[in-house]
Design brief:
single chain; about 375 residues; mainly alpha; 3 domains; about 0% strand
Length: about 375
């Protein structure tokens, strides 16, 4: 998320932390002041995005509140809310791809919706299963959806966890403050120093006439680049979240020590994997209990994750590739490896195999079809 690298944005976030610390004796400082900060930040960043987000959040809050209190037609209301939100994202994707055109469209809308829609669905999911006992005030609902540190790139917050944090008073100890600042500095180092330098090297090599060793280098290099890029952003978000009194979940849990792809997707962009597992796999697996059904759900989830990243053939194929591999793991009883129950050589060999499988397709994340095809063609040029 680019605005967290803007000096004005960083100063605003740090200023908000200072204000929260100075007003810590006010019981509602975290909820009210964070709300004002979120709204002001979006308004100054983009008035179009502010207006779009305000309308989107208010409409969804009405649906969420209705679902909380509905005595009848709850399943139909829940289904309609999910379909309409998914349709909104799909529609903006198609407008962004120029499949359709409308004078009111602006790409900034999509910028603010990709992660927000996942949080909205989680809120509806919570309302559907908990009902009016779990209804959150409008103030907390808005804060949950528009929380600036995680607004466009995650980590993806769970509704129940964020609401629980909102009920707690603002208490950030000296140790919390130190840990938060260190996490922010680490994230900025990754984003500003490592990613900037690695991006320059990537483009320098890409400009060459690619041979197999160039392409292999670019795949591995790009894998490391996006790790530092995305984990760096997550570090910044987690640090600021902690300083503002909210616990932001970890997004990267030693993904390079994952012995299977199934375990890898619980450790790489962990909150995204958790979201799809909780909202799709767990729901359907209750009725579809066979191993073949689980394999099919793995393909479906990975295809959806691919299309969530972008409506392109490359992302679709990326999803099919990962889904088929995970399905095979499930069918062959290879989905889980307990490090304590296998030998060290076997465990690390499985980790290496997993990383090789991920590396082969990771260049798709570049989002540039020409670059991806050029690198794959380079593999054939010895």
């Amino acid at each position: 998320m680019s605005y967290l690298l803007n000096l004005h944005a960083l100063a605003a976030l740090l200023g908000m932390v200072v204000v929260l610390m100075l007003t810590r004796r006010w019981p509602h400082n975290k909820r009210i002041l964070v709300l004002l900060f979120n709204l002001c930040f979006l308004y100054l960043f983009s008035r179009k995005l502010f207006l779009f987000s305000a309308v989107y959040v208010l409409v969804n809050y009405l649906g969420y509140a209705l679902l909380c209190y509905a005595a009848r037609w709850r399943r139909q209301l829940f289904g309609a809310a999910i379909v309409l939100n998914v349709a909104a994202v799909a529609g903006l994707r198609l407008l962004d791809m120029n499949v359709f055109e409308h004078p009111a469209f602006d790409a900034i809308y999509l910028f603010g919706l990709i992660y927000t829609v996942l949080k909205v669905i989680d809120a509806y999911y919570f309302a559907f299963y908990v009902g009016k006992e779990g209804k959150a005030p409008l103030l907390d609902f808005v804060n949950y959806l528009l929380f600036i540190p995680t607004f466009t790139s995650g980590p993806i917050l769970k509704f129940r966890d964020f609401i629980a944090d909102s009920k707690k008073p603002y208490t950030v100890s000296a140790a919390d403050f130190e840990a938060g600042i260190k996490r922010i500095v680490l994230g900025l180092f990754k984003k500003v120093v490592l990613v900037a330098g690695m991006t320059a090297v990537f483009h320098d090599v890409l400009d060459l006439e690619l041979r197999a060793y160039h392409s292999l280098f670019l795949m591995v290099w790009f894998y490391a680049l996006i790790y530092f890029d995305f984990s760096g952003y997550s570090d910044i978000a987690i640090g600021f979240g902690r300083l503002m009194g909210y616990t932001i979940p970890e997004n990267f849990k030693q993904p390079f020590l994952s012995p299977t792809l199934t375990q890898y997707w619980r450790n790489w962009h962990a909150t995204l994997g958790d979201w799809f597992r909780d909202h799709i796999f767990m729901i359907f697996s209750r009725r579809l209990t066979t191993r073949w059904a689980a394999a099919g759900l793995s393909v479906l989830i990975m295809v959806l994750i691919g299309l969530w990243h972008g409506f392109t053939w490359l992302y679709l194929l990326w999803g099919v590739y990962h889904g088929v591999l995970m399905a095979l793991e499930s069918l062959l009883h290879l989905s889980l490896v307990n490090r304590k129950k296998v030998s060290r050589p076997y465990f690390f060999a499985r980790c290496l195999l997993t990383q090789l499988l991920v590396t082969f397709a990771v260049i798709v994340y570049s989002g540039n079809t020409d670059v991806v095809l050029r690198i794959y063609k380079g593999l054939l040029n010895w």
